[in-house]
Write a structure and sequence with these properties.
Blueprint: E1 6-9, H1 11-24, E2 29-33, H2 35-39, H3 43-50, E3 55-58, H4 61-69, E4 76-78, H5 87-94, E5 97-100, H6 103-111, E6 118-123, H7 135-146, E7 151-157, H8 170-180, E8 187-188, H9 192-197, E9 208-211, E10 236-248, E11 253-254, E12 260-261, E13 266-271, E14 288-291, E15 294-299, E16 307-310, H10 312-316, E17 326-332, E18 338-339, H11 341-347, H12 352-357, E19 365-367
Parallel strand pairs: 1-19, 2-3, 2-9, 3-4, 4-5, 5-6, 6-7, 7-8
Antiparallel strand pairs: 1-10, 10-13, 10-17, 11-12, 13-16, 14-15, 14-17, 15-16, 17-18
Helix pairs in contact: 1-3, 4-5, 7-8
Length: 371
């Protein structure tokens, strides 16, 4: 039989999280962000759960083709726009909307021969300092685009750097409004954190919100708030089984480097999952994990193919545990217990985004339990 590890994608949870976004911003349309292969979930696997969105936002043309191939006829937005002139031809053929964030992209449009004008989203650098025109140059960029016959409707967008923290979004909103408030067109301002935390702020409401990590059941402002606080459900479960049990005595060590030393009698379980599966190597002793739906901890270093787990909580409760017992690395156990991916990511010194995107190719993925 195959190695007993698999990731499960939960369609109902995807639909639930989309509805949670709509509750937060009932007057806005929702981009379901499916960049990075739907945050590691797989575009084809999440499509059914997210097809209730108003549009899909992503980065590259190959992913856009996949969404169209699934039968989607609604808006698709290229969040970074085009990278070379010939990309505009595919935008025309696939009816893609695309961001414009630099002079070079305007130059490409000006030289582009097309009979169907493009829908573009003019991006402002309001303080994130990644992509976009500065507020001082924003109106001149709009004027250039507005004069092009290759351009149809112009919408406006920016991206918040601190929507998940105490600095907030007021400074960027002020910059955006000062430069764009009287320009005609739809707005797309809020990322996941702003959608949940700042939906009621004056001036932040817009025509489109870009829902990314929130769609996948991770809290954008963890650890201040967790997924349960926002009413989100995990959309990915990484689960395996115990493939061995070892009794330890005081002084026995576990794993490479002998980082863990037992201070008394202890039983550990060995689970079939390691950093080659995408489980973070930087997780150390104490990282939470579920065995048979009961919370316990990882002990010792993560190996390429295995992790070791403290079975004390289960044995102490009289629960039967051993070879074949269910292990949930993150997500939902079969008894309904949930281990948020954000807690595992925190133990690894990273964020839930990275864990989702880092799921290894060798891990089988099923949708709602069906391969």
């Amino acid at each position: 039989m195959p190695r007993p590890i698999a990731a499960t994608i939960h369609t109902a949870a995807l639909h639930h999280n989309l509805e949670r976004v709509r509750q937060s911003v009932p007057d806005a349309k929702v981009w379901a962000v499916v960049k990075a292969n739907a945050y590691g979930h797989g575009i084809e696997r999440v499509f059914e759960g997210l097809r209730g969105a108003d549009g899909f936002a992503l980065l590259d043309l190959a992913e856009a083709e996949r969404v169209r191939h699934l039968g989607w006829r609604g808006p698709i937005l290229l969040l970074e726009g085009v990278f070379e002139p010939r990309d505009l031809e595919l935008c025309s053929r696939l009816s893609l909307w695309h961001a414009v964030h630099c002079d070079e992209q305007i130059d490409m449009l000006a030289a582009h021969k097309t009979q169907v004008p493009h829908r573009v989203f003019l991006k402002m650098n309001s303080g994130m300092n990644r992509l976009g025109f500065s507020p001082q140059r924003y109106r001149s960029a709009w004027a250039r685009l507005n004069a092009l016959p290759q351009v149809d409707e112009i919408s406006f967008m920016t991206h918040f750097s601190d929507a998940d923290g105490p600095r907030g979004i007021a400074h960027q909103m002020a910059a955006f409004n000062a430069a764009a408030q009287d320009l005609p067109g739809e707005r797309s301002l809020s990322n996941s954190a702003a959608t949940l935390r700042h939906a009621a702020d004056a001036g932040v409401r817009a025509d489109w919100v870009r829902a990314g990590i929130v769609m996948y059941g991770s809290a954008p402002d963890f650890p201040e708030n967790n997924a349960a606080h926002w009413g989100l459900q995990p959309t990915m479960t990484l689960a395996t089984r115990l493939i061995g049990v070892q009794p330890l005595q005081a002084g026995d060590t576990v794993g490479y480097g002998s980082r863990f030393v037992a201070d008394g009698p202890l039983t550990i379980g060995v689970a079939a999952c390691g950093y080659a599966d995408g489980y973070p190597r930087h997780c150390d002793t104490g990282t939470p994990v579920l065995v048979n739906g009961v919370r316990t901890r990882l002990v010792g270093r993560v190996s390429m193919d295995m992790v070791m787990l403290d079975l004390t909580p289960l044995i102490a409760s009289g629960m039967q545990v051993g070879f074949g017992s269910e292990v949930t690395l993150w997500g939902r156990a079969s008894n309904g217990a949930v281990l948020p991916i954000d807690e595992v990511a925190q133990a690894a010194g990273t964020v839930g985004y990275e864990l989702m995107c880092a799921l290894a190719q060798r891990v089988p993925v099923v949708v709602d339990g069906v391969a």
